[in-house]
Amino acid sequence: MMVLLELFLTFSRISLIAIGGANAAIPEIRHAVVDIHQWMNSDTFTHLFAVAQSAPGPNVLIASIIGWHVAGISGLLVATIAMVLPASVLAFGIGRVISHFTHRREYKLVQDAVVPVAIGLIIASGIELSLYSAFDVLTWGMVLGTLVFVYFTEANPMWALLVCAIGGVVAYQAGVL
């Protein structure tokens, strides 16, 4: 029962700082789950994050999968609710208040200021994950190939994900990874 309370408090706190979505809070989630609570090691966290990202659905799946890993179905439910509820209530409340100010210039300035913050948090998340991942020539090739593909084409980025997933499976089966 205590672990469920810890899951709830951990993900409730993280949900309030997840400007830009759950992916923006990945470094904090990893720190809480791996370093503070020691519910798993960095490798397990990275693998669960990869599973959450490859599954269709919202980015909050990372909290759900961690909750399931830590405490089964109860943990899944508690972590998901904790990740969604506080931020949703706060966003609803703020939305109600600022809806009266959307015509003001200051509103647009604040809105424009939040976008680079969210982008920076998401980039920091990618860097944080890369610090705890095994990066070799093949992995860097996949990362750079994906960046080039996404930047220079208008194709759906899911194609890059599919090609990298297949490449990873083939490399693993061949003993390269």
Automatic annotation (TrEMBL):
Gene Ontology cellular component list: plasma membrane
Membrane topology term: Multi-pass membrane protein
Subcellular location: Cell membrane
GO MF annotations, alphabetized: chromate transmembrane transporter activity
Location (main, coarse): membrane
Keywords annotated in UniProt: Cell membrane, Membrane, Transmembrane, Transmembrane helix
Transmembrane intervals: 66-97, 109-127, 159-176
Matches recorded under PANTHER family: CHROMATE TRANSPORT PROTEIN-RELATED, CHROMATE TRANSPORTER
Protein family according to the UniProt entry: Belongs to the chromate ion transporter (CHR) (TC 2.A.51) family.
Protein name as catalogued: Chromate transporter
